[in-house]
Amino acid sequence: MFDEMDLMRRGEALREKKDYEQAIAVFSEVIKLNPRLAEAYYARGNCYEELGLHDEAIANYNEVLRFSPREAAAYYNRGCTYGKKGERTQAIADYTKAIELDPQYAKAYYNRGVLYFKRGELERAMADFQQAILLQPNDPDFYVSRGLVYTVQRNFEAALADYQKAIQLHPKHLKAHGNQANLFEMQGKYEEAIDGYTKVLQINPKDAKAYLNRGLVYFRMGRYDEAIADFTEAARLNPKSGKIFLNRGLAYSKKHDNQKALADFDEAIRLEPKNLDAYIARGSARSALGRREEALEDYNEAIRLNPRSAKAYFHRAVLHGLEGRLDSALQDYTQAIHLEPADPHAWCHRGVIYTRKHNFTQALADYAAALERDPNYLAAHYNRGLVYRILGQWEEAIASFTAAIRLEPTYGRAYQNRAIAYSQIGQHSKAAADLEKAKQLGIRL
Q1: Number of structural domains, the chain?
Q2: Could you tell me if residue 91 is inside a domain?
Q3: CB contact at 8 A, 169 and 138
Q4: What is the pTM of this model?
Q5: d(Cα 420, Cα 440) in Å, to the nearest integer?
Q6: With CB atoms 3.0 to 4.6 Å apart as the test, which of 185, 273, 373, 431 could cross-link to 193 if both were Cys?
Q7: Are 135 and 106 within 8 A, CB to CB?
Q8: In terms of Cα–Cα distance, which of 361, 366, 360 is closest to 346?
Q9: Can you give the CATH number for the domain in which 399 is found?
């Protein structure tokens, strides 16, 4: 006949073998023998937690605390379980109680800091990570999490120091390498970011997220073939991610391979039927292939999914403009501006529609609004120059075309139109020089 301690040892042996169901049965026998044995409830709660049975785990931790109310580890474990259930307020309360009972409990500070971070309470998160590091300075996870807070606060130098410290402590720490690569990407240090994601893949060649992230960097660099190769490997490793197919489709679009792009957007939508960006991207691919009615359906669906998506209204407005539906285009550009007034593109595009409707005063106002938001907006300078040319305001036209040329010295059409303006005010030598430049740049005169 087994006594309760023999059964406890047997249960622990089963738990170490990850035979959690049998271990639970044994710990339950212990509790029948001694209903006040806190250790048995604690062990059974841990087994339930390993099986993902959170409510049963919490019930057992409650029993531990009924018999042993100053058990810091029980509060900590119950806090972990509440955290997994998404009950963050209760989890924070449990971690706080564990810290109150054991002020040296570094993991409790750390886990509470993670929850504060998720709630956007950065100062509290930082304080907890600082304390965790002070108590346990050789845990790389603590530095990675503090580095993430520094990153969000845009203290990039401190963030980099923390990621490097974590890597020093654990040279193969995936999250440290990945976060460091993210940091480089945020700073526009794309080569360093690629090196970082490559390091992650050297450690774990099956990390689909690292392939996706490296592919996104290649995409931003305009290295679309390399981006496609990474997205393809990411899709092989994680074929259920709509985001991967969406981004590969966007890379194909950049290469003007709209058929392959369309296939990827179809798959992205099949996997994630409410993916707004996938509908917008598929609409653009369909429009490029001349399938404009289907494109309109996609933009309409995107707006149905999110009536406050400025991006969806903008793309539908572009399609209306291509189809000559100028009033509909104006309505959509106006809605896009209403939803996202800081974006210069809708202002500039609406200016084009006003130009096509011969409402030159409003067109100039829109180009001015676009340039107020982005003084280096090439198309807005050029388009405003065209309106000034139509109105015969030659000096203003010259200034606008000059601004466009300053931004893009190989802009042949800008030289050609500036030449016309120079000619109108009698500056024929400048006009001739601009025409020659336009000719050199391939403009047929």
Answers
A1: 1
A2: no
A3: yes
A4: 0.86
A5: 17
A6: 185
A7: yes
A8: 366
A9: 1.25.40.10
